[in-house]
Design brief:
With about 130 residues, the chain is α/β, with parallel strands linked by helices. The chain has one domain: Methylglyoxal synthase-like domain (Rossmann fold, 3-Layer(aba) Sandwich), CATH 3.40.50. It contains seven helices and five strands; from the N terminus they run βααβαβαβαβαα. Strands 3-2-1-4-5 form a five-stranded parallel sheet. The structure holds 1,3-dihydroxyacetonephosphate. The site of 1,3-dihydroxyacetonephosphate (13P) has 12 residues, from helix 3 and helix 4. It comes from Sneathiella chungangensis. InterPro entries: Methylgl_synth, Methylglyoxal_synth_AS, MGS-like_dom, MGS-like_dom_sf.
């Protein structure tokens, strides 16, 4: 991970949105040094509470937002993906979810599917001391 301001994607399936909101709230002081984008409904949940956070709004996941994130990864425009997936519910856009995870794997982007992994990623020094 480069020691600079990072481009971070934030995404959560519906059953995991409260978990993502809680994670962002807990880590806000570290996170606010970086740049964000989020899929549509995730964006709304986050910005309703954190009105001061600048987060670029993408399409909703099932409407192409996951694919927008995948495109950013292959264009070198996303450094980290925080993507809390619902392990209990089949998603109608599962092919998009798989494509996004595949792009993260292919381009070796740090990908957190749960808060424990997200916590490990943000303890990387690049998060605490971005060069900007
Ligand atoms: O479906 C998603 C990820 O696969 C997330 O999309 P929303 O943030 O629009 O709910």
């Amino acid at each position: 991970m480069a020691e600079t301001c990072l481009n971070i994607g934030l995404v959560a399936h519906d059953a995991m949105k409260a978990t993502l909101l809680d994670w962002v709230t807990r880590n806000k002081s570290i996170l606010e040094k970086h740049r964000f984008c989020a899929t549509g409904t995730t964006w709304k949940v986050l910005t309703d509470i954190h009105r001061d956070m600048k987060i670029e709004r993408l399409k909703s996941g099932p409407m192409g937002g996951d694919q927008q994130l995948g495109a950013r990864i292959c264009e070198g425009k996303l450094d980290v993906l925080i993507f809390f997936q619902d392990p209990m519910t089949a998603q109608p856009h599962d092919v998009d979810v798989k494509a996004l995870v595949r792009m993260s794997t292919l381009y070796d982007i740090p990908l957190a599917c749960n808060p424990a992994t997200a916590d490990l990623i943000i303890t990387n020094p690049a998060f605490a001391h971005p060069a900007r």
